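Lab notes, practical 5.
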Amino acid sequence: MTGIDTAVAWLAEHGFRILLVLLLALVGQRTLGWITRLLKQRIQQLDEAEDTELDRRTETFFGVIRNAGMVLIWGTAVLIILNEVGISIMPILASVGVAGLAVGLGAQTLVKDVISGIFILIENQYTVGDVVEIAGLVGKVEEMTLRTTELRDARGVLHIIPNGEIRIVSNHTREWSRAIVDVGVSYNTDITAALKTLTEIGENARQSPEIGQLILETPQVTGVEELGDWSVRLRIMVKTQPNQQHTVRRYLLRQIQDVFTEKGIELAFPRQDIMLLNVTNTTSKV
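Output from the prediction step:
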């Protein structure tokens, strides 16, 4: 039997099985994607609002399930194909136990990342779309797997953080946020009038069609926060929709600048007073 005949015979015996395994893996991939997409849509339809906490948590959970399922499907397919081409998978599986101690030291980080990812999902620490601070980095969660979290910051830089490295998570978009605006006025300002004006600005912002829907409670003017070197610092705090504190803060700053200027309330700025002494030198004659 020639080499060509041998190859044809091998393909006749094993080629169909390999093709069948690849087709089944592809069908499994498509089926998994269809099922996770269907379940995700059904769960997200439980509430009528868009981009709610339920929507983001569902998106994150099924994204992780889909990624893990793909690894399982194609990992199994590869093992079957290896066995079909004559590479026994039993020694490979047995070697996992034999080399487990050696590999374990190197795999500790991977296991640590996966376990941390599982607990992040179970405890719902954050979801895709949340703005969080992780490992000293602040950004929006764009993707999450059992091993890593992808975070994009305000400059557009994408940070990939192993879940095992996450110790403290500061979630900026959970339930509500708070905008804090400090206003410095000069020492010769009528503080009572300035506080009253600041209160009016907060109340008008709550009623504003431009920004009012982002404010959850009546803004609070806390009063005088500090007597600085060149200013008296006042503060207004506003409870806002999740991750909307920056928008509200920018609006308040604009209103403070306009209204304080209109009412003649002087906003403080760093200054330095210089005193010039005119010294006259006299010379006495003896």
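Observations recorded by the TA: The chain has three domains: 3-98, 103-173, 177-262. Helices lie at 3-44, 53-84, 89-98, 100-123, 191-207, 245-262.
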